[in-house]
Amino acid sequence: METGYRCMVAGILVLCSTLAALAAPCAKIDAPPLSERWFGVFVNSERVGFYRQRIEAAGDGYRIEGNGTVQINVMNAPKKASMRETYLVTKSLALRSFEVEQTVNDSITHVTGMVSGNSIHLKSESHGKTSEKVLAITGDVYPPPALNLYPLMRMVSAGTSYTIQAFDPEELRVKEVLITVMGEDTTSDGLPALKLRNNLYPYVTNDIWVDSRGNTLEESVREGLVTTKAERPATLGSVVSDRALARKDLIYDFSMVRIQPPIKEPKKVTGLAVEITGWNEALSVLQGGGQQVEIAGQGRVIFKTGSLALKTSALKADKPTAEHLKPADKIESDAPEIRAQAALLSAGVKNTEELVTSLASWTASWLHDTIDDGGSAVESFKSRNGNCQTHARLYTAVARAAGIATRFISGLVHVEGKGFLYHSWAESFVGDRWVAVDPTYNQFPADPTHLKLLEGHLPEDMAPILAIIGRIKMTLLDADY
Questions:
Q1: Residue of 229, 232, 238 whose CA lies nearest to 211
Q2: C-alpha span between 44 and 232 (Å, rounded)
Q3: Spatial CA neighbour of 396 closest among 481, 479, 457
Q4: Calculated CA dihedral for residues 141, 146, 150, 156, nearest 10 degrees
Q5: Spatial CA neighbour of 142 closest among 180, 176, 171
Q6: Which residue in 90, 228, 310, 479 could disulfide with 219, CB within 3.0 to 4.6 Å?
Q7: 190: how many CB neighbours lie within 10 A of its CB?
Q8: Which helix (H) or strand (E) holds 72?
């Protein structure tokens, strides 16, 4: 699940940038504070990073600068993200121009932009390539660091809400964000504060506490799973200099889903029935591809896969669309090298099943399994390196190039002796149904421990995983052998 976690790691820093504003509870302020502040970043109460922000006057507005680093372990793989950002805003904090550089595991993305009339003109540079984009806007747009200041520079009273347009530097789009003044409260350390809340990111709640002196004290995402707290520079000194911010596998620890009772001889399983509790009922459930899902209510869903799914349902398949055969971002099925490889693997095959088997086997052997994402299908074809998402991306590209409707899937898969971990694979339309294909493990069809949660390879497709990761529990109801 590299793409989803890439957004999670870098997204933590975007959330941090909203924290560094100062505020005055229950009193309107006329200008943002002109100062420098430091913050510690924590995941599950474990320190994983820092963020520094400086606000200064600039002409007839302000310059907001920030930089920070977060390092966590994702699926037993270290993930490091750093961000440097500069925003020029008006006296009312509306965005004028910006420059943001994000680095995730040495992969650098540099984005600049300027507001002009009813548009934001963007220029993005990554992997030696430059692209430009224009975002249409209506009215003022605000950068993440302005979100906490916005209500305080207008009217601060419990229950007051504001809906504004905010620019998201991670997804390079403008979002509608609701900011609400919740009222007087206390921080996790028991300090009196004014509480704010916004919905900058879907499926999670972003809470902020500011004190009577006008300092932001704390920000919390997912009920304290990710927190950012104001700290003295001296406190963060050793953390900043060390940069080895995570000394144990943080994400691995809380993302693994252990099942009770354990599955006996999982390699021999032909069908599973499991109950998941702690499910976010706002999420969609996906059928087909060898599974049936029943919503049981009160945060409970029941997954049936393999032979147990077939016993309870005919599993009528949704039909492929044109999108399942087209090239897509990072899935370049029309690239010459991908088309040539698909033609080579298609030569002499007798049917679709044989071709899917050949494509999955080739992908598994072509790519060396690594902890880092190998990038797009073309990039990984050339480098021959990549993780599960890379495998799924390359397989999807060659399958589409071979004329097989295929879609990118993510969810949970059982790892013997451990539990269920987040993973990506694919589904191809074979005969009259979608069949799960795992090109990482060279499985066609993929074994019944694959539980499909999400479809799609884009960051926004992965975002819903934040609503359940570290929260769900799993019970084994039945197993076929």
A1: 229
A2: 21
A3: 457
A4: 160
A5: 176
A6: 228
A7: 7
A8: strand 61-74
150-198: pLDDT as tens digits? 888 887 788 899 999 999 988 889 999 999 999 889 998 898 888 999 9
Structure token pair of residue 122: 């963007």
Give the containing element (helix H, strand E) for 42.
strand 36-43
For helices 336-346 and 388-401, give the axis angle rounded to 10 degrees. 70
- Cβ neighbours for 16, distance < 8 A, ≥ 6 positions apart: 39, 41, 49, 51, 66, 68, 219, 228
Bridge partners (DSSP) listed for residue 413 = 421
Among all chains, which residue has been given the structure tokens 């403008």?
174
Closest CA to 141 of 172, 111, 100: 172
Two tokens, residue 374 = 């190998």
**Residue whose entry in the numeric block shows the structure tokens 């993302």:** 255
Which residues, 6 or more positions from 340, have their beta carbon under 8 angstroms from its beta carbon? none
How are the residues of the chain apportioned to helix, strand and coil, as percentages rounded to the nearest 5?
A: 25, 40, 35
DSSP structural state of residue 390: H
Cα 91 to Cα 20, 58, 88, distances in angstroms: 18, 10, 10
Residue 416: is its pLDDT beyond 90?
Answer: no
How far apart CA 35 and CA 14 sit, in angstroms, is 19
As a whole-number percent, the residues of the chain with pLDDT over 90 amount to 51
Q: Which segment of 71-75, 95-99, 313-317 scores lowest on mean pLDDT?
A: 313-317
Q: Which of 327, 1, 27, 6 minimizes the C-alpha distance to 157?
A: 27
**Residue with token string 């029941």:** 302
End-to-end CA distance of the chain: 28
- Please list, in sequence order, all residues whose beta carbon lies within 8 angstroms of the beta carbon of residue 296, skipping any fewer than 6 positions away: 275, 302
CB atoms within 10 A of CB 255: 23
Which one, of 46, 68, 62, lies nearest residue 95 by Cα?
62
CA–CA gap between residue 232 and residue 60 (Å, rounded): 30
Q: Does domain 256-480 correspond to CATH entry 3.10.620.30?
A: yes
Place of tokens 């913050």: 39
Q: Helix 388-401 vs helix 2-19: angle between axes, to the nearest 10 degrees?
A: 120
* Angstrom distance (rounded) from CA 272 to CA 293: 12
d(Cα 280, Cα 299) in Å, to the nearest integer? 6
Q: Cα 106 to the chain's mean position, in Å?
A: 18
Amino acid at 92: S
Could you tell me which residues come within 8 angstroms of residue 11 by beta carbon, excluding any fewer than 6 positions away? 170, 201
Per-residue pLDDT reduced to its tens digit, 252-309 = 555 678 899 999 999 999 999 999 999 988 888 999 999 999 999 999 999 999 999 8
185 CB-contact burial (10 Å; exposed 0-12 / middle 13-18 / buried 19+):
middle
* Identity of the residue numbered 456: G
| Average pLDDT over every residue of 59-73 | 86
